[in-house]
Amino acid sequence: MMMAISTGSLGASEAGAAVPPAPSDKVTVERVTFKNRISIDIVGNMYVPKNIDRNKKHPAIVVGHPFGGVKEQTSGLHAQKLAELGFVTLAYDAAFYGESGGEPRNIEVPSMRVEDYSAAVDFLSNHALVDPNRIGAIGICGGGGYLVSAASIDHRIKAIATISMYDMGRARRQGLGDTITFEQRMKTLDEVGEQRTKEFGGAERRDITAVPQSVTEDSPEFLKEFYAYYKTPRGQHPRSTAMYSFTSLAPMMNFFPFAQAETISPRPVLFIVGEKAPSAYFSEDAYNKAAEPKELFVVPGASHVDLYDMPKAMNVSIPKLDAFFKKNL
To answer: I want to staple 242 with a disulfide (CB 3.0 to 4.6 A). Which of 45, 59, 211, 246 is the partner?
Structure first.
């Protein structure tokens, strides 16, 4: 089957990369709190254009952060930039992370990450500035896979866009590039079971990291990219540790976010990927499983993490997102 791919054009790059969003003179930011379906407090930042007509209802966009991220990083940056273009936007911390509630901390519960998108839609649907029939969503990296799953069951999400999407289930089952063998996966599940037994008996919790604590010249390029974003002033945030419980690996392996991707139709789906991103096959997989209308949009020369914040890449992706949501919301 021939894949319909569209490609953006990179313009001149601005100097340096964007940092977690500095205040914008075009946008007001309000800290909001709302509950998800099991009454965990979800904390978000709501971005509203300063010139908005408060006597009318407007289209809104939920923005979900990457696995290991928080709302002050790339999701907040995207929310702010789209608010500057006229949308009401909401970037939030997933349950168990950042400022949101949920105990224990830093555990991955895929069904809860899916639920949080619907909780954000609950909140926006009841907001005085928002038209409940014109709510879209963006998911970045791991947040993209969770969004595809959420949109499959929440018909209130009218337009769906992902950026550098990661299928966290496949990534944990098979590794990036499908490098983990079946035998290795089974061994990990054995270890998870043993660890659960130990922790129930009082042993110290075992945590692992999604981002390397250090890199060398010999480290894989994609690890260098994640380190450069999460572990340097470019994108680091004190609440974004990228640490999570080892026992989270089992429920993550059991997560198949694209199982019902075709049921999102006739709502439109836009998958944005970097031309050089080793993770692009996740978006290609979802694109192939989704039904029309759908689009796979490639940003030339961009890597996975470039789309988080690099001006040269965002000069292509943000206008694409703007046009997509203005057409479909």
So the answer is: 211
| Count of domains forming the chain | 1
Return the ∠ at Cα 144 (arms to 120 and 300), rounded to 5°: 130
Beta strands in the chain (DSSP E): 5-7, 27-35, 41-49, 58-64, 88-92, 130-140, 157-163, 207-209, 243-245, 269-274, 294-299
CATH number for 313: 3.40.50.1820
The pLDDT tens digits of the residues spanning 226-251 come to 999 999 999 999 999 999 999 999 99
Structure token pair of residue 299: 């940003």
pLDDT at 21: 82
Taking the model in full, what pTM does it have?
A: 0.94
Q: By residue range, what is the domain housing residue 76?
A: 5-178+251-328
**What integer is the mean pLDDT of 131-157?**
98
Q: CA torsion angle for 27, 32, 36, 41 (degrees, to 10)?
A: 140
Taking the C-alpha atoms of residue 147 and residue 162, their distance in angstroms, rounded to an integer, is 8
For β-strands 41-49 and 88-92, DSSP reports them as antiparallel
- From CA 84, how far away is CA 111, in angstroms rounded? 32
Computed over its alpha carbons, how large is the radius of gyration of the chain?
19
Query: What are the φ/ψ torsions at residue 199 (nearest 5 degrees)?
Result: -70, -35
Amino acid at 199: E
Let me know if residue 227 belongs to a domain. Answer: no
CB atoms within 10 A of CB 189: 15
